[in-house]
Amino acid sequence: MIYVVATLMIKPETHAEFIAAATACIKETRKEPGNIAYDLHESVTDHSKMVFVEQWENAEALVPHRAAEHMKAFGRVVVKCLSAPPKIEVITPEKVDVR
Amino acid sequence: MIYVVATLMIKPETHAEFIAAATACIKETRKEPGNIAYDLHESVTDHSKMVFVEQWENAEALVPHRAAEHMKAFGRVVVKCLSAPPKIEVITPEKVDVR
To answer: Which residue, B62, B60, B61, B57, is CA-closest to B2?
Structure first.
């Protein structure tokens, strides 16, 4: 199992368009084989900071994910919304303590 | 370096109180030795799902964090807000790919 934390800084005026496109992408991504969890969150301290928190069975599941039509469609919107390059952290855990 | 992903499901009517208490706690936590990143995010698909995404230099830094007065003060608010037990994932990475 892996985690992905993807942080995207968006231009305030694109907020509604970004959320709409992300919501459509989330719906399809959650159907993908290998996806465990996939959701988008808005920082409460900086409303232009949008963070995907994802879990996948393994890193291989990311390959078809990135090629999926719903991700390409979302990508076409994202490029218009970003105010800075995204930071995507793909985390392979050695250990996860769940409390 | 470790990550903490803490997911808290809150009662809708406590949203404002929870955000206010969390914001105060975030301000102080970011000053703590060993903290790298600490922020609270609201899911865009479920507004009662609140997710802390944190980075710490090591797991030891969590000990004084949990004992800190600002965390205790936040905890006293959280217990009134939760609609389900929180899920706290402490992730020790084997590997992190940053893109």
So the answer is: B57
What is the C-alpha to C-alpha distance for residues B90 and A19, in angstroms, rounded to an integer? 28
Give the CATH number of the domain where residue B15 resides. 3.30.70.100
Q: Which ranges of chain B does DSSP label H, i.e. alpha helix?
A: 15-29, 62-67, 69-81
* Cα distances (Å, whole numbers) of residue B26 to A20, A59, A77, B48, B54: 28, 32, 31, 19, 10
Give the residue from A6, A57, A4 showing the smallest Cα distance to A33. A57
Whether residue B52 contacts residue B5, with contact meaning beta carbons closer than 8 Å, is answered with: yes
Q: Which residues of B, range 52-71, sit inside 8 Å of A by Cβ? A: 53
- The partner residues of B96 in beta bridges, in order of sequence, read A91
A37 to chain B nearest CA, in Å? Answer: 12
ipTM for the assembly: 0.96
Residue A99 lies in a domain: no
Reported as a single tens digit per residue, the pLDDT across A43-93 is 999 999 999 999 999 999 999 999 999 999 999 999 999 999 999 999 999
A9 CB within 8 Å of a chain B CB: no
| Residue B99 within a domain | no
Asked whether B83 and B11 are in contact (CB, 8 A), the reply is: yes
Residue A43 lies in a domain: yes
pLDDT of residue A84: 98
Answer whether residue A24 is part of any domain: yes
